[in-house]
Amino acid sequence: MNKFDYETAKKTFADNYRAAIYCRLSKDDDLKGESASIANQRDMLEKYCRKQGWEVISVYQDDGYIGLNMERPSLKRMLKAVEQRQVNLVITKDLSRLGRNYLQTGYLTEDFFPRNGVRYIAMNDGIDTLLDNNDIAPFKNILNELYSKDISVMS
Questions:
Q1: Helices marked H in the chain — which ranges?
Q2: Is 58 left (phi over 0), alpha (psi -120 to 50) or beta?
Q3: I need a surface site. Which of 17, 85, 98, 105 has the fewest CB within 10 A?
Q4: Which is nearest to 81 in space by CA: 93, 92, 73?
C-alpha cells in the first residue's frame, strides 16, 4: 500500500485544496427519493467546500450508472484529472457514490488517491484520508457491494 504523508499535506495544502466533486446516481438509488439526487449531492458538496474555503475545480456527475460499474465516463475523467495533478481533493456524499465494487473502490481510496497526493472525503460516512478515522472504510465498501448485489437480485 502506498502511504501519502498526510502531515506534510496538511502543512502544504492548508487552504489550497483544488476539489473535484463526484456525484453518482443509479436507477436503484433514485428509488430512495429526492435526497439522493445528483442535484442534492452536488449542492451539498459545493456548499461544504465553500464553507471550508476550498476551490471547486470541477463537478463530475454520472447519472444512471450502478456503483459496481467502474467504467463511468465522469469517473474516468475525474481520475485523469487526478493523474494530471489538476485536483488534490476528491469529495463524495458517501463512499458508495465513489463505487460499490469493494476491491476497486478500496484501490482508489487506499492506493490511487494517496499515490497521486489526493485527499479523499466521503462526507456522510465520516471518511477523510487526512485523518485517522478510516478503519471502517473497508467494511463499508463490502456492505456497499453486498447492498448493490442484493438490490439487483430483488429487481
A1: 6-13, 27-30, 38-52, 73-83, 95-98, 102-107, 113-115, 137-154
A2: beta
A3: 85
A4: 73
Q: How many beta carbons lie within 10 A of that of residue 21, not counting itself?
A: 25
User: In whole angstroms, what is the distance from residue 155 CA to residue 149 CA?
Assistant: 10
Grouping H, G, I as helix, E, B as strand and the rest as coil, residue 112 is: helix
pLDDT per position as a tens digit, 18-48 = 999 999 998 765 555 555 689 999 999 999 9
Query: What residues form DSSP beta bridges with 4?
Result: none
Residue whose entry in the numeric block shows the C-alpha cell 492548508: 14
Instruction: Quickly tell me which residue has 477523510 as its cell.
Output: 128
Domains and CATH numbers, the chain: 6-154 (3.40.50.1390)
Alpha-carbon separation of residue 1 from 60, 121, 133 (angstroms) = 27, 19, 17
Per-residue pLDDT of 41-100, as tens digits, reads: 999 999 999 999 999 999 999 999 988 889 999 999 999 999 999 999 999 999 999 998
Q: What is the pLDDT of residue 41?
A: 95
